[in-house]
């Protein structure tokens, strides 16, 4: 009887936990489906029909409008540039600093580790950071975005722990064979750390792709704005009356939905290819450290 009672509790726990997961999944999937399906609805149906999930008519006019929008195309290119260059800068600086701090023989290592931990707990603030960027003459430059958030302390600490778990014998063997530090780091350490490197590359890529606040604060030229700033401008302009939406395609909700879909599409496409590295990298970098 006692074993049966325990099994009933296990079954109830499994049922409740799966029910919570299903409800959570629906709460995430439903808004996503609404955005995707509404982006294919005609302007007139959205204005006259109100809320719906499945459109009566299907059209790609909203996507065609965005593809022909010079501002959207420029913003999309800016976002791609910021993501590629910014992620490269992030990973180069983070991995090099993490590799250096993983060496017990490094002079001043404890002080540097404390400084990294301190910046994770206490930030400099918006105004001091802005004044530093301004004094370096980086305003209205993409380098203001790249350098102001070049190294995330949490990413560096986890990556440092990952490097510390690589057997020291491999490094000693490489040095005996005449391998220098940079070559050792590039040809030995990084290939062995691929799961962790891929994980934080994904984190940095998402961070740079979604760059908004820093772009608004540091970039004055609208031609340099990334995609997230364009979305904000679109949402502000789209808060017109229903009559305006009915007569001007620019303010159609379908265009807003299509812009959201195209903004999220690169991350949705790229994430499945990184997922196998993502899980392994987080576990190996945090549990063993």
From TrEMBL:
Keywords: Cell membrane, Membrane, Transmembrane, Transmembrane helix, Transport. SUPFAM superfamilies: MetI-like. It is a multi-pass membrane protein. InterPro entries: MetI-like (IPR000515), MetI-like_sf (IPR035906). Pfam families: BPD_transp_1. Its main location: membrane. The chain crosses the membrane at residues 12-37, 79-99, 111-131, 143-163, 184-206, 254-274. Residues 76-273 form the ABC transmembrane type-1 domain. The keyword Membrane applies. The keyword Transmembrane helix applies. It is found in: Cell membrane. Belongs to the binding-protein-dependent transport system permease family. This is Carbohydrate ABC transporter permease. It comes from Paenibacillus violae.
